[in-house]
Design brief:
Oligomer: single chain
Helix content: 10-25%
Order of helices and strands: EEEEHH
Shape: elongated
Distance between the termini: 45 Å
Strand content: 35-45%
Largest sheet: 4 strands, antiparallel
Number of strands: 4
């Protein structure tokens, strides 16, 4: 798995049965999505153990970012402050420009 993933963060790790492990990732080709492993649950594959990846290609990455920002902050009057706090908590540089 790691040969095509540039960066990832664990999202879910549930011990079962059934068990699920999921990572959000950015691939080496700039794709973004999820890598998932399921154990002890029959799903769309018909097997009780399987893994899959769901992702979008690099050209749609900006659309993903905007969709996630909307999902997180739509209707929130503190959206800009909450965004800056989230960036700070994750060690991501964030700038503030007063117009």
């Amino acid at each position: 798995m790691s040969d095509w993933i540039k960066k990832s963060k664990k999202i879910v790790e549930n011990e079962g049965p059934p068990s699920r492990y999921a990572e959000a990732f950015i691939g080496k080709k700039k794709e973004v999505g999820f890598y998932v492993q399921d154990f002890g649950a029959t799903a769309f594959t018909g097997d009780s153990e399987y893994e899959y990846v769901t992702y979008v290609k690099k050209k749609h990455k900006d659309d993903v970012i905007l969709a996630l920002l909307e999902k997180l902050y739509k209707g929130s009057e503190s959206c800009a402050e909450d965004f800056r706090k989230l960036m700070e908590e994750n060690g991501i540089p964030c700038k503030l420009f007063v117009l």
